[in-house]
Amino acid sequence: MITTRALSKRYGAIAAVRSVDLDVREGDRYGLLGPNGSGKTTLVRMLLGLVYATSGEIEVMGRRMPRHAREVLPQVGALIEEPAAYPHLSARANLALFDAAGPRRSAGRRGRSRRIDDALEQVGLAGVGRRPVKTYSLGMRQRLGLAAALIRRPRLLILDEPGNGLDPRGIRDLRELIIGLNSSGVTVFLSSHLLGEVEQLCTTVGVLDAGRLVLQDELAALRAPTGQILLDTPDADQVCAMLNGQVEQRDGQRLLIRHADPAGLNARLVGAGLRVHAIGPHRRTLEEVVLAVTGTGSDHIGGRS
Ligand code: ATP
Q1: Residue range 226-283 in CATH 3.30.2130
Q2: Is the pTM of this model over 0.90?
């Protein structure tokens, strides 16, 4: 759905995006993570033809960008930073203007009105769609921006920090909305500086660090078992003595053990009369994965096969 090759952007002396090879596939919920200033917004803007690349190539839905922007953009829903809206007009009126600026639809006025109703409903603004936007909170404006992204019923959604300004309930609604759209066939590419948000929402993760894509892989692969076992036992001393050399870390009663078979180890410990409170394969959190590849000067690791 989106591929870039050696995509780079310089602002004078600043290398904002450096030789990025992005690979977003149909059906993905792709989360682009990175701290402030790592180049997320610049990258997203380049995908949409809002910022010109210094070098490199971009394809969105199989077409070169920005050359084919007129063909591609009507099929893309986008939310970039704070969404623009006419403050004195209602959400409905703003959406109608936005829709009218899009490609012509055969469904006419009633079809348009239904699309607006659907979009407002999807983002939870159905009850307040007639109020002027100047009375909206930041979170409500963000929802309106999402409604504008949805109104053309896009195949691809590109969202820059969509959780900005939303309260916990808004974030949960957004998550459900994105998962629902994705399961009906919409590919989603979003940027975020919130690791937890991406971990809960996305199937594929990319990590930008000072403009470089230092990691790109499926979440399930990143969080695959490490070949170690996490054991919680009040008999930690005895276990350490018994498994001499296999215990790699100890934190009170929690042990990290080099061993591939939790069931086998459990049977052995219980057979020896030792108590097991919890046992299972060890997986790294996304935070641990990201910390391992950022800020260390390391180059590209992993990759989608
Ligand atoms: P944030 O999470 O804070 O929005 P970001 O990851 O989206 O950050 P960008 O906004 O893409 O990062 O910025 C990347 C780098 O490019 C930063 O060093 C920023 O100062 C610089 N930059 C971005 N836009 C411009 C511009 N128009 N002119 C000069 N420098 C810019």
Answers
A1: no
A2: no
